[in-house]
Amino acid sequence: SSILGSFCFFAQFTISANKKHKMKLLCVLVLSCSFAVQAFGVSSDPALSRKSALVQPTAFHKKEVVAKNSPLFRDPAVVRGGAVPGWNAYTEALDKKPLITKAMTSLVGWALGDLLAQMFIVGGPIDWKRFFTLSFFGFIWHGPTGHYFYNWLDRKIPGTSGKVVALKVGIDQAIWCPIFMTVFFTYLGLANGDAFNVIGNKIKNDLLPACQGSWKVWIFVHAINFKFIPTKYRLIYINSIQIAFNMFLSMIGSKK
To answer: Is the pLDDT of residue 19 over 60?
Structure first.
């Protein structure tokens, strides 16, 4: 991490002002690569480290020991989640505390969506009020309502046939999407201290464009969602896609 920090500091110090936003993107990509490499990292358990240090491979079995000690062959029983650290813990949390886990999942998704929108689309200093407002919306509304809505939908309309999937996508986009967008604009208006007539005009002007933007993305995304994704994993799948869509929402929601 110290090497990455030095890299980012040196890069930002040496480049000209008109290229800073490009370097921010490069730093994000470098950090992402480091996290991906870490996903295949060796366990930091001191006992395992000492045990590995005691192994002195001979010429006859050196290749075998190197392969077993390679980061790509770490013991999935030692690091939970196999090649994805924490995945088993996340799955366990979904089983034990599904509501708060999905709320936190949406908090992260909305936080990343707005942060990336501000860094690479809006530019300039970060609007922390907007950032925390949208992050809290993910936590207080998107996660909990998504938990109850998709559980209800899967319970009422079970199955993954083409007809069932089409029906679920239709309900989601024709009924749930306008409700969601209306709550979204109302929440932002109240958070900004807008009068109800201002909020009403915002909904009147931007509800249809927001829904049309949703239909261009989420009909296809939810077709995959309802066909292949188990119910308890729906929100993490949605949030992984929605990071990009939240950039769109954060822009349209902040439009005057």
So the answer is: no
- Residue 200: CB atoms within 10 A of its CB come to 14
**Under 8 Å CB-to-CB from 169, ≥6 apart: which residues?**
219, 222, 223, 226
pLDDT tens for each residue of 58-94: 544 444 444 444 444 444 444 444 556 789 999 999 9
Decide if 127 contacts 118 (C-beta within 8 A). yes
Helix, strand and coil content of the chain, in percent to the nearest 5, comes to: 80, 0, 20
> Using an 8 Å Cβ cutoff, are 130 and 250 in contact?
yes
Q: How far apart are CA 205 and CA 15, in angstroms?
A: 42
What is the C-alpha to C-alpha distance for residues 24 and 28, in angstroms, rounded to an integer? 6
Where residue 82 falls (left for φ over 0; alpha for ψ -120 to 50; beta otherwise) is left
Q: Give the tens place of pLDDT for each residue, 191-209.
A: 999 999 999 999 999 999 9
What span, in angstroms and rounded, lies between the C-alpha atoms of 17 and 24? 12
Look up residue 205 and give its two tokens. 């002007």
- Residue 178's Cβ-count burial label (10 Å; 0-12, 13-18, 19+) is middle
